[in-house]
TrEMBL record:
<comment type="similarity">
    <text>Belongs to the type III pantothenate kinase family.</text>
</comment>
<keyword id="KW-0963">Cytoplasm</keyword>
<keyword id="KW-0547">Nucleotide-binding</keyword>
<keyword id="KW-0808">Transferase</keyword>
<comment type="subunit">
    <text>Homodimer.</text>
</comment>
<dbReference type="InterPro" id="IPR004619">
    <property type="entry name" value="Type_III_PanK"/>
</dbReference>
<feature type="binding site">
    <location>
        <begin position="7"/>
        <end position="14"/>
    </location>
    <ligand>
        <name>ATP</name>
    </ligand>
</feature>
<comment type="pathway">
    <text>Cofactor biosynthesis; coenzyme A biosynthesis; CoA from (R)-pantothenate: step 1/5.</text>
</comment>
<feature type="binding site">
    <location>
        <position position="96"/>
    </location>
    <ligand>
        <name>substrate</name>
    </ligand>
</feature>
<protein>
    <recommendedName>
        <fullName>Type III pantothenate kinase</fullName>
        <ecNumber>2.7.1.33</ecNumber>
    </recommendedName>
</protein>
<feature type="active site" description="Proton acceptor">
    <location>
        <position position="105"/>
    </location>
</feature>
<keyword id="KW-0067">ATP-binding</keyword>
<keyword id="KW-0418">Kinase</keyword>
<feature type="binding site">
    <location>
        <position position="133"/>
    </location>
    <ligand>
        <name>ATP</name>
    </ligand>
</feature>
<feature type="binding site">
    <location>
        <begin position="103"/>
        <end position="106"/>
    </location>
    <ligand>
        <name>substrate</name>
    </ligand>
</feature>
<dbReference type="Pfam" id="PF03309">
    <property type="entry name" value="Pan_kinase"/>
</dbReference>
<dbReference type="InterPro" id="IPR043129">
    <property type="entry name" value="ATPase_NBD"/>
</dbReference>
Length: 253
């Protein structure tokens, strides 16, 4: 059998095809399209794939976008199943004030990270950073409690806000510098250090709350931008949400 996972974000739809529905499954194929290109999936990216026997996805882009993706699943006559954040799943307890309002992509990433921690050895806290259109920084205790998290604008949103609200500033092609000496570098560096600062502050909060340093996992298309500037040890996991979806699907099975 093969199993399809789908992650519909604010900008792109990401998908992966695995050889089975369980943690540690082998990724056979994967890809991504911008939301404007969803209608091309059945005839292009998915056209030559072996038919999956089941799927599970998470979607934060809204019902209309999700329905467009579901129409593409008709190529396999596949019943769509979507994650909604729950009070508990896969050994993680959801500490959100209203658990179902936690973004399903965050919930899947948290579960994926918790599984990674346990696979690596003794339980320890974790910090889960997703760097996309928005940035989220989520904390998990050593016993699997989701403690809470931050949401802040991603690189693009920050720069667009400055461009629209400030005379004479335009979205730059600058570099990240310790001491920027031109406007383009200053804008790019400011946004990057703002995100890095939020991560470092939450990292400190977790140590204060849990009494131990957390494992730090980063995912998302822009995660690599943070690599050169943060002193924290971290692991970049491109498929962290997929890993969480596999664990959720395995538990449901």
């Amino acid at each position: 059998m093969s199993f399809l996972v789908v992650d519909i974000g604010n900008t792109r739809l990401k998908w992966g095809l695995y050889d089975r529905c369980e943690a540690g499954a082998t990724l056979q194929s994967h890809g991504a399209v911008y939301l404007e290109q969803i209608e091309s999936l059945a005839e292009q990216a998915w056209a030559d794939l072996p038919a999956p026997t089941a799927m599970l996805g998470c979607a934060v882009a809204g019902q209309a976008v999700r329905r467009r993706a579901e129409e593409q699943l008709d190529v396999w006559d596949l019943r769509p199943r979507w994650v909604v954040s729950e009070e508990r799943s896969c050994g993680v307890v959801n500490g959100y004030e209203h658990p179902s309002r936690l973004g399903s992509d965050r919930w899947a990433a948290i579960i994926g990270a918790r599984g990674r921690v346990l696979d690596q050895g003794a339980p320890r806290p974790a910090l889960v950073v997703m760097v996309g259109t928005a940035v989220t920084v989520d904390a998990v205790s050593a016993d699997g409690r989701f403690l809470g998290g931050l949401i802040l604008p991603g690189f693009g949103l920050m720069l667009k806000a400055l461009e629209s609200g400030t005379a004479g500033l335009h979205v730059p092609t600058g570099d990240i510098k310790r001491f920027p000496t031109n406007t383009s570098d200053a804008l790019m560096s400011g946004g990057t250090y703002a995100i890095a600062g939020a991560i470092e502050r939450m990292h400190r909060h977790v140590i204060e709350e849990c009494g131990a340093e957390p494992a730090l996992f980063m995912t998302g298309g822009a995660a690599v931008k943070l690599a050169p500037i943060t002193p924290l040890g971290f692991e970049v996991l491109d498929m962290l949400i997929f890993e969480g979806l596999l664990r959720i699907a395995q538990e449901r099975a």
